[in-house]
Design brief:
This is Conserved domain protein. With 180 residues, the protein is α/β, with parallel strands linked by helices. Helices cover 41% and strands 18% of the residues.
């Protein structure tokens, strides 16, 4: 048995393209997929470290509550796919339950890398308004985390050009397929 857990962002739910297609792909590869849902976030967290830390704690708390009844020991392979604040929550949850899950970090925040980040792959848009590209490159290099970059893409890995956005989405999903 294989398990894929989707950890959403504050405003980026599991029915949005990156997580929707990642979950759909995982199901097609025989994974049981658990899509988490978050609520109650302060929407003014951007550029405020204290609020971001509180949001990450809230995401972790809600993740633990939603996953409390899942026996992770029955799965031969587990992959976590996080988006934004969900990247911090998935790494914190992985550390908390002490399992060796592979992690896909879709548009991670810099604070995500305060947790151990082994066995992770990160995806980042160079116009991401939530994470500085040079700082993210540096931390990924220090932590030995492969970083896939998308030119002029924002925090949703979108540029505003539909064809470019679809090309980027396809590339992300193809790379996730290799990880599955």
């Amino acid at each position: 048995m294989k398990l894929c857990i989707l950890f959403p962002g504050i405003g980026y739910h599991c029915d949005k393209p990156l997580l929707y297609y990642a979950g759909k792909l995982a199901r097609s590869k025989g994974y049981e997929v658990k899509a988490l849902k978050y609520s109650g976030f302060d929407t003014s967290v951007k550029d405020n470290e204290d609020k971001m830390r509180n949001a990450a704690k809230l995401a972790l708390s809600q993740s633990k509550a939603q996953l409390a009844d899942i026996d992770l020991s029955v799965y031969e392979k587990i992959i976590f796919i996080g988006k934004s604040i969900g990247t911090a929550a998935c790494l914190a949850y992985r550390e908390d339950v002490r399992i060796n899950a592979e992690c896909v970090l879709l548009t991670p925040l810099l604070q995500t890398f305060e947790m151990p980040s082994d066995n992770c792959t990160a995806f980042h848009g160079t116009a991401d308004q939530w994470a500085d590209t040079s700082a993210l490159r540096s931390v990924c290099q220090q932590k030995n985390v492969p970083l896939c970059e998308y030119d002029k893409a924002n925090h949703s890995l979108e540029t505003g050009d539909v064809m470019t956005d679809l090309k980027y989405l396809r590339d992300v999903i193809e790379k996730i397929e290799r990880l599955l």
